[in-house]
Amino acid sequence: MSRQPEEPIFNRIEEFRIKKGLSRQQLADAVGVHYQTVGYLERGEYNPSLSLALKISEELGTTVGEIFSITPFRKVRNHG
Predict the structure, then answer these.
(1) d(CA 60, CA 64)
(2) Pick from 45, 39, 36, 51: which is nearest to 14 by CA?
(3) 74: which residues sit within 8 A by CB, 6+ positions away?
(4) Under the phi-then-psi rule, with left for phi > 0, alpha for psi from -120 to 50, and beta for the rest, what region is 2?
(5) What is the pLDDT of residues 59-75, one digit of tens each?
(6) Per residue, what are the HEC states of 18-36?
(7) What is the CA radius of gyration of the chain?
(8) Of 20, 14, 17, 9, whose CA–CA distance to 49 is shortest?
(9) What pLDDT does residue 53 have?
(10) Which of the 8 DSSP states describes residue 72?
(11) Which parts of the chain sit beneath pLDDT 70?
């Protein structure tokens, strides 16, 4: 039996991290991962474990559903 490739998990980690004024290093330290892992997550190159997704959402002060999705997020346009 072959393993199916993982479906992509879309995220808004960078958006929420910047809103909170955190660097990648600060978020990484808070959730117990290497800062490069945060970069991989933000670029969609790595899917987080459920535990890590929960830690990230808690640290960013929001829900898992606000940060992670199996469908792409709509781009928010800033007017003005």
Answers:
(1) 10
(2) 39
(3) none
(4) beta
(5) 999 999 999 999 998 87
(6) HHCCCCHHHHHHHHCCCHH
(7) 13
(8) 9
(9) 97
(10) P
(11) 1-5, 76-80
